[in-house]
Amino acid sequence: MSDALETLLRLRAWEQGKPINRGQRVNVAISDDEDIMSVAFLRMGGESRPWGVAFGNPGSPPTVLSVPDGRDQTLVGDTMVILAKALLEFFRHPGFSTSSPDNFEVESARQIWLPGPTHIEMLHFLALTYAKTRFKRDDVEVLQCLGNLANCLYIEHQRPGQQIVISAAAALRECFVFPSAAIRQAHLGHLLGWLKGGSSRADRIGAATRAEEQSVATMLNPELERSSLEPLVDRWNEAKVSGNKTDESESERAISRLLTKELISRWNLTNDAIAVLRADQRKSNSGLSELVKSGARQFHELWGSRAVKEYDGDIPYWPNVYTDTNSKTSAFGYIMRNAANQEARARLVHGDRELQREQLAAGHGVIARVVSVSAAAASWRLQYSYPPLPTIEPGDYFVIAGSPTEQFVVRSVDLESREMEIEPQWKKGNSKANPPKLGPTDSSWKGRELVLLDDAPFSLTRNLAFRARKRTTGVSDILDLVQPYVRNQATNDELGAMTEVGESE
Amino acid sequence: MTTPIHTRIADFIAGEKFVCVVKAPPGSGKSKNLLESLETSLERRARIAIAAQTNNQVTDLCRRFASRYPEHTIFRFSSKMFSVPDDLPPNVVVVTDKANIPDGGCVIASTCMKLGLTTLRSSFDILLIDEAWQMTWATFLSLRSTAPRYVLIGDPGQIPPTVTVDCDRWETSGTEPHYPAPEIILGIDGLKVHTTELELESCFRLPHDSVEIVKMFYDFEFSADAKPRERYLRATKPGTGDSKDQGIDLLSEHSSVILTYPTEDTGAPIETDQELALFVAGLVSRLLERGCLISTNADEFAAPRGLISEDIGVVSTHNQMNTAISTALASSANNIRVTTPERWQGLQCPVMIAVHPLSGVSNPASFDLETGRLCVMASRHQAACIFVTRDHVGETLSSRLPVGDHALGAIDISGRGHAQHTSFWRHHEVRGLII
Known about the structure:
Chain A is an alpha+beta fold. Chain A has helices spanning 3-16, 73-90, 117-130, 140-157, 168-175, 188-196, 201-212, 222-242, 245-279, 288-311, 327-349, 353-361, 458-469; strands spanning 20-21, 36-43, 50-56, 63-66, 111-114, 165-167, 176-177, 365-374, 379-386, 397-400, 403-414, 419-424, 449-454, 487-489, 499-501.
C-alpha cells in the first residue's frame, strides 16, 4: 500500500477514534484451536537461548517452562527438549506423532502463532543453537530436530502469503488500520489496547498507552530484569556453588514465578489477538483456502519431506541456518519467493474489493469500460479511466477482478486516448457457474465497467525456479567451475568444535 | 590502435573460455558491438542464441540483426501470446514452437524468461545476453541449459533488477540470487580464469561534460566521443530572466543544470507534486518559445537545428508524477515521452527534463538513494539535461545520513548511493549550475 493511502486510512481511523477494518475480508487464515500452537519466549539480556517458554493450544492452559539461569545450556537444553517434543508432535513429525507430514493434503493445516517479531527471531536462534549442535547428551537428536524445524519455520515465515508462522501483531495490522505511529504498532499490547480498550477514543488511547508500558518482546523490561531477577539469579548461582539447597530452590521458585507471569502475559496477548480476529464480522477471503493448501505443500517440501526422510534413516539436506551457500538452492529459493509473492496477491485480491482498490492505486490495474466486442476477431476495445497508467504495453496480461480465469492479453494501447484493444484468452462461457460466466464474444459485455488487474504468472515463475535448480542437460554446467563455498560455521553451542559446512542442496 | 571490442568478443566466441562480461557505459553501442561480433560465427554456421530482458528489446535486436545481416535469418522465439509487429523485416521469422527451431546452425532471439522456461531439443554453442545487468543471477541460472558459454553485455551503472521480496536470507550467500548476474560472475573466484572481462571505452550519446558527470557512477574509465562544447542547446530569443530562463541560458555552455523550486515551510507534498509538474510543463513551453537550437552531434555543431517538441523527453521515478506532468503538458504531451527511468533505459533523446529522484523526499530510503535511476536520468540526453527539484535536496543530503542496515560483508548500497548523490549535487553546485 502506498504511504499516502496508509496515511489517509490512519487519519480516518483517528477520526473514528478506533481501529478501522483493513480490507473487506479477513485476509489471515486462523486454524481451529487444536491446530494452533501458541508460543511465547523470554530470553535473558545478552543471551540468545530461551530463558523460558510458554506454549499450548489457545483453548487450554499453556505449558510454561523456565530455568533459573538462561546461561545454563544444560538446563535450557532440558526445557527445549520438552518444547521440541511438543512442537514436533504438533507438526506431525513421524518420530513424535502418530501421523506424518506426508499427510499434509488430507490433514488440517497447522499454525504456530507468536506475539511478534522478536519471538519469531527466537526460531532463528533455536535453529542456530540446535540444528547442528554437538551437545553431548542422549537426546541431542531431539534438539537437532527442533533446530531444523525452527529453521524451516523461520524461513517459511519470510515467504510472502504463508499462513503457517503467524505474528499476532502483524496479523492484527493486516486486518485493521490503527491510528498510531508505525513504530508503536509493533507492540501487540498497544494494538489490543486500541481494539479492546473501551468505547471512546480517549479510553482506547489510554488502554493502548498503558499496555505499551509492559514489554511484550522476548526481552524483559530492563528494570524488572535488573532489579528483581538479577539478584535472584545471583543468589541461585551462589547457592548452587555453596550447596545451599534451600536457597537454591527458593530462588529458583522466585525466578520461575516472575518469568511465568511474564510468559503467560505474552501468551495471553497472542490468544487475545486470535480471539479478536475470530470475532470479526467480516468473512474470510475466499482465496485463503488455496493459499493455505499451497503453503502446506511448500512447507512439506521445505520441512516435512526432509523430516520423513531423516526418520526413515536417510540423510536429508537440511537448509543451512545462515544462508543458502549453494547457488542453485539460493536461486531456487529466491525465485520461489517471487512466485509466492505473485500467488499471494493473485489468490487474495479477487476476494477483497478493498485490496483491488489498493492494487489500482498502486498502478497494478485499471478501471475500464467495454466500448466494443468484436465477435469475429475475438477482441474488445476498452476505454480506461483510472488510474491513467502510462505503463500499459502490448503483451501485458490482465484478468477481471473477482474472476481470475477471465484473462486478456493487450494487443494495442493508445496512452493518450486511454484506449486499448485486448484479446480474451478464455474460450467459452459457463451458464451454470454462479454468477454465470459469459463467453468472450458475448455482446452483453459491451458498456460494462470492469476492474482489470495485472495477471501474476506465478506458475510460470515457479517453473523458472525449478529450471534454475535443475542440473543442465546436454551441456556442461558453468556451476561445475565454481569452487564449493566452504565456511567455518560455529554452532551456538560452545561445546561443539567449529563445524565445517560446505554446500547445502 | 586498440582492437575494437566487437573483435575481442568475436575472439572470445572463437576461443575456449566460458564467460565474457562486457561493461558498457550509456550510449556506447552495446547492441551494435554484440551484433558485430557475430560475423565470423555466422560464417561458420554456429548455433547462436541471443537473449534480452523484454520483448521490446528482443524485437529491436531482431530488427537490427536483420538490417546488419540481410542474408541471414533470425528466429524470433516467443510465446503464442506475442503480438507480432506488422513491420518485421522478412528475415525475422517468428517461432512459437521449439520444434520449429532448426537443429543446425542458426540464430534465435528471445527473452531470458522464455529461454529459461524452455527445454530445447538441442543446445546452442553460445548465448549472448543483452542488458545483462538487468538480469538476476537466479534468472541466469535458469539459462544454463541453453548453451555452455555466455557473453553478457550491459550497463553496470543502471537500475538493478527489481527486488520485491525479502532477501535477507541470501545477503551473505556469496552468490546472492537477486544481484545482477554479471556482478556475481565477476565476483566468483573459481570463474575468474574462465572469464574474459571487457569494457567499452567511448560514450557516443552524451555531451563531453555530461560524461564527466556520469563517470562517477562507474568503476571503470571511459571517455566522451563528443568534443568539448560540440553539443549544446542555445536559445535564439531572450528570456524573462526567471529561473527557467537562467537555466536554459546556462545550457549553451554546459550540458546539465539543476533548477530548484522553493519548498514550502510545511515541506514538499508527500505524494504527487502538482506544482512541480506544472513547473516542468512550463519549462517545456519556455524551451519551445525561446526558439532553441540544438547540436546533438559533430555535424550539427556548425549547423544546429531548431528544437521541436519531439526532441524533448521527461523522466520521473513515480508513475503518478509522470501522469501529472502529462496532464500539465496537455496537447504537447502527444509528442513528448514522459515515463519512468525504468522505461527510459536503452532510449535517448536530444533534451531531457528529469525530476530529481530526491525531490520531495525528506528522509531518503534505500530506494531513493539507489543511484541507478539517477544515472539513467542523467544519461539519456544528446544535447542537454535539466534536472528539476524542490530546493531542499542539498540540505537533505547534508543532514540525513543513511542507516547502514545491510548485512555484514554486503555492499552498502545506501551509503554508496548517498555518496554518489552528494557528488552529483556538489558537481553542479561548485560550477554554479544550480539555480
